[in-house]
Design brief:
- By secondary structure, the chain is mainly alpha-helical.
- It has one domain (about 1-200, about 230-335).
- The chain has ten helices and four strands, in the order ααβαβββααααααα.
- A hairpin with a 7-residue loop joins β3 (about 130-135) and β4 (about 140-145).
- α3 (about 100-115) crosses α5 (about 155-170) and α6 runs antiparallel to α8 (about 235-275).
- The longest helix has about 45 residues, at about 235-275.
- It is elongated and about 70 Å long.
């Protein structure tokens, strides 16, 4: 069934990546557990970094099943509620055939032409021009388009966008992105927590910048309480920094993987749309209109789902979620015969 697209190897690669991402998620969960143990032991009273690490390792040896259980629980939650999470994050709402007959007919015709099961349709009430596809298996796939896209694009251009999103479903891109963003997205959450909550305005210091209700004042020259004197906190601070580094590295790795996956799949979806519609110029003109007004408010973790980045930041290189529109258009002109 997939050979008509000539992308069977891409589909197989997506399945392999999905399994690898879930396995990597389990590994990163254990890394997160170890970082938490480092935090706990850093405040246990010891100032020796080696002792703190040794304690964390001993505790990890007996508590690693906790991380495995947490990963399994999150897989169940993500699998069960991923559609609700995505819908709430994007503001998409289901639409019936009676409410959008032209949209339904366009998607249905594309599906019939290739024998593809009809995904659900949703509309996002925003004047921005954008669209996305999501889902893990047949019967649960969804394509969402914005109200602005329906009001602005011509019927041929809307059909091209639907073909683009339908290709994501056919190529199993939606499965991969749900796994990468929803299943492994917990590391983005912890990374954001670390960046936003750890605020040392006067440089990193083991002492609090603001006195808390349980802070203890020591006489001048006493070197603080407990053992270690003036060196109190040196080993503990190092352990804290290592723990923070583990969390941030985990977050960074998951973020870079997510961005790279999104970039590579967009060219293939553009090509798949042209194969479905036989109209490269409609895809080109749709991309140009979308790029001029794609921005609206969605969580930063969701931008990779869309046909074009809906956030204001336009990062490039490794941090870009999408290829440049001009590059995508050039590829359609060169390989699909688009005139632009």
């Amino acid at each position: 069934m997939f050979q008509a697209y000539g992308l069977q190897t891409h589909i197989q690669a997506n399945r392999f990546r999905s399994v690898a991402l879930m396995a990597g998620f389990v590994v990163l969960m254990h890394a997160l557990l170890f970082s938490v143990l480092l935090f706990v032991n850093a405040f246990s009273g010891s100032d020796d970094f080696g002792e703190i690490v040794a304690l964390a390792i001993d505790q990890f040896a007996t508590s690693w099943p906790v991380a495995a259980a947490a990963a399994a629980l999150w897989f169940v939650i993500a699998y069960t509620f991923h559609q609700t999470l995505i819908r709430n994050a994007t503001g998409a709402k289901g639409v019936s055939r009676q409410e959008a007959p032209a949209l339904y007919n366009a998607l249905e015709n594309l599906c019939i032409s290739r024998g593809i099961p009809m995904p659900s349709l949703q509309i996002i009430e925003t004047p921005a021009l954008n669209a996305y596809a999501a889902g893990l298996k047949e019967g649960h796939y969804v394509i969402a388009v914005t109200r602005g896209l329906l009001d602005t694009l011509s019927p041929d251009e809307v059909e091209a966008v639907l073909g683009h999103e339908l290709t994501h479903i056919r190529n199993r891109d939606t499965q991969l992105m749900v796994v990468a963003i929803i299943f492994a997205g917990i590391f983005g959450f912890f990374g954001d927590m670390m960046i936003r909550r750890w605020d040392f305005p006067y440089g990193i210091s083991p002492r609090h910048q603001r006195p808390g209700p349980y802070d203890v004042s020591y006489p001048a020259g006493s070197g603080g309480g407990g053992r270690g004197g003036k060196d109190r906190g040196g080993g503990a601070l190092l352990a804290i920094l290592v723990a923070v580094a583990i969390i941030l590295i985990s977050w960074g790795i998951s973020t870079l993987i997510r961005f790279a996956l999104s970039r590579s799949r967009e060219y293939l979806a553009d090509a798949g749309s042209v194969e479905l519609t036989k109209n490269p110029d409609a895809m080109i003109s749709a991309l140009r209109k979308i790029s001029a007004n794609a921005v609206f408010d969605v969580p930063s973790r969701m931008e990779a789902f869309f046909i074009e980045n809906p956030l204001k930041s336009r990062l490039s290189g490794l941090l870009a979620t999408h290829p440049d529109i001009d590059d995508r258009i050039a590829a359609l002109q060169r390989y699909a015969g688009g005139r632009g």
